[in-house]
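hey can u run this one w/ zinc ion bound, need the structure tokens asap thx
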Amino acid sequence: MRARQHYETDDQAFPAEAYSVRQCPGVAFYVLGWETAPDEDTEWSGMEERTGRVVAVMIGDDFKHSLDPADVTPLAREAYCGVCGQVGCAHDGLDRERYREAQELKEEIAVQERRLKECLVLAHGCRRGYVSANYRAEARQCVVRIRTMREKLKNEFADVEG
Ligand SMILES: [Zn+2]
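ok here u go:
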């Protein structure tokens, strides 16, 4: 179905780079945002109302499709081709093995960042000096691990980390 021309972006609702659409499983889509339509106040308010549907385009195409959000699911980056948009095609030159390694590194960085925050909260919340010192020591280790992994990501995975 052709979408209305207007939409509202929403990075929270659509954080993934590309999406799979139930009616068209062979091709990856970019989600542009929530479809909007004029209502009786639009003329003076300039604001439109969300229709509850999603506006998306196929990779490599600019036709705007109006889709039910239930039919739209996030697609892993390595699952589709960034050039032609076909699911299963790898001619875009992305090294999928290295891409996965980089993703794992990023996930591990996120784990360490969460633990770092926890340790700092625990260190501040504890009155017993030696317990608090233990959490600070662990927090310091987290900082070192995060720094090392960030450097590795920057130095060794720059090509797959766009
Ligand atoms: Zn391709």
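The chain has two domains: 7-79, 96-156. anyway lmk if its weird
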